[in-house]
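User: Show me an example of a complex going from sequences to structure tokens.

Assistant: Sure. Here are the input components:
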Amino acid sequence: MAFFSSSVRNVSPRAVREIRTRGLWLVNADLTEIRRDGGSIGFSWIYRYRSRTRVFPDRRFVSSF
Amino acid sequence: MPRITRTTFALLCIIFIGIALRAVDLGFPDVSTDEAQFVLGASAAHPPLGMALFRFGILLGGPVIIVARAVSAILGVLTLVVMYFIALHLRNRQTALLVAAVAAVVPSHILFSRLAYLAVPLTLAWLAALLLFLLARRDGRPVFILLLFLCSVSATFVKAQGLVFPLLLLLGRIIEKRRLAFRDPVTIVLALSLIPILFFVVTHPGLPATLFLYGGNMFGLSHASGRMMALLQTWWPLLLLFFPFLLISIPMIRLMPWPAVLLLLTGPAIALLLGPDHPYYATDLVCWALPVALLLGYFPAAARHGVMIALTVNAFLILTPRAVSVTPWTYSLVQTPGYWNAHADTLNTLMMNETLVIALGATGHHVRWYLMPEVLVGNDMDLTRRNGMFLLLDKAAMERIPGATVVYEDERLIVAKR
């Protein structure tokens, strides 16, 4: 529902860009929460990388704007 | 036991050829970027059921692509069975057999039954939902209504656009029953079947995010003529002779019940809106075996047999088994051996001691499937202080890693170390 907010939509491309600058695959980054705290917006992610033979441990991080 | 006539035997032979064509060369094409996403079970753009089917196959048979593609092939064959029962419900046993035979040799469905895409599972789920809707609509037996619910839920969880057909069925049923719709078990069950996916979308923001933010430019009706041309250019090499028969069978849809017509139109409409140049949207054209078979029913027997032979040869030419030959009509994907199947072992030997590799250039998900170390996509990364192994799918990217040494190079890529 957060995507109905124009402020969230405005900063979303930056959140996506941040994932790319980390070298992560967008499809492996699960957006779990969008939190608005005062003027800032935080995107919580779980990064799950899996290769053909191995499941790598989950990594959690937050992109704040 | 019914006597097997020569016609029945011929149709059974065509069905057998169609099944065999779905089962050959499963390991031949390189794993595509889409397949890798689905088989690795990591696509934020789709709900989990379709991917889970492939993961389940791999869990049973091991992490090889043939296993995941075999899941698709089995579901492809099941699709023929469901189409048989739909036609049996609408007409009779002979027409049902003809529908199954036409469906068996639809080249686009054969191709994607050999690949681990979500297109075949979705088509099967939609067809099963159609069959159960028709059965439930006829006599309203609770078992059909329950199975309709399960099929409809399954369709919505196979692929993001899976909810389109159940939603259309629901709207059609409301129009059909008007005021009585709110007391109609079929309407109620269809409405209830859409609730789980709504909860899933709400609790998994990645899915709407993918739809609205990352891929927003896929959708719409802009450049309608361009989209139509792209659709024709994509479908033609995949269908060849089946395509004109599909077109001339269009008047036959007036003989079909509205739920079947909705399904026939859903596939092409989705292809036009979401990606006319994506060949996988041609998979659900298998549903058009229904009007094509109805059309063939009007042909004299000799002409009908001739067309069936021609359609079978058509499928065989487009998707000839590699052991037989490659024809000028062979679909591009299965014409020549892929790069990655041939080179993955060499690359993995080079990267044996690496835990992380940074890829530069057009990096598809297939790279994750083929390479053993974790792969980062370096195109937007600051590489100034990054050392280690680099996979350069764009050779010009060497200038981004000054001081790196080339440890491997071929016609496609460079492996460098810094």
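The lines above are the inputs; the final block is the predicted structure for all two components together. Residues 2-64 of chain A form one domain.
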